[in-house]
Amino acid sequence: MTDSEVTRVVAEIGAFTGIGGLLVGIVGLVLGLANLVRDKGALRVELSEAAIPYNLPEYPSNIDWGLVNVSNSGRRPIYLEAVDLILNTGGKALLFSSQSKQLTEGGEPSHTMFDIGNVRKQGYRIVCARARDARGRSYYSRMSFANKIRFALLRLRGAV
Length: 160
Description:
The protein is an alpha+beta fold. The chain contains three helices and seven strands, in the order αβββββαββα. The chain has helices spanning 3-39, 116-121, 145-157, and strands at 43-51, 65-72, 78-87, 92-103, 110-115, 126-133, 138-140. The strands form two sheets. It has a four-stranded antiparallel sheet. A hairpin with a 4-residue loop joins strand 3 (78-87) and strand 4 (92-103). The protein is elongated. The protein starts with a helix and ends with a helix.
C-alpha cells in the first residue's frame, strides 16, 4: 500500500466518522427538543353540556347539569386557579376559583358541575370553557366551527 492509498483510506474513515457523528448529533437534538416539549405542563379542558350525576344527592336529577373536566396532560404539576365559561355575549360565568388546586400528571382531574339550565334560561350560549393556571395562562375546551367564529369575534371586540 502506498502513502497515497493510506491517506485516501484514512480520509474515507474520517468522512464516515464525521457523517456518523453528525447523524447521532441530529438525533440527540431532536430527542432533546421532544423531551423539552413533553416536559411542559399543559391542561386539557373538556366541556360536557349533558352530564348526568348518578346517586349524588348534592346534584338533584330535575336540573340539567353541565360538567367541566380539567386534567394535566403534561409532566409537570400545574396549579389550577379558576374555571369559567365563555358566553356568547362576551361575558364570563365563574364556576370555580381557589387558592391553587394542584393537578399532577396522571392524577385526579378537577371536576366542576354547573347548572346549564340556568345559563340557557338567561338566554346565553356557551362558547367554551376556560381554565386558568397560577402563571396566568389560559386553556380552552374544544369548540365547534361556529363557536370558533364566535370566539374570534369576541377576541376582536376585546371581550375575552
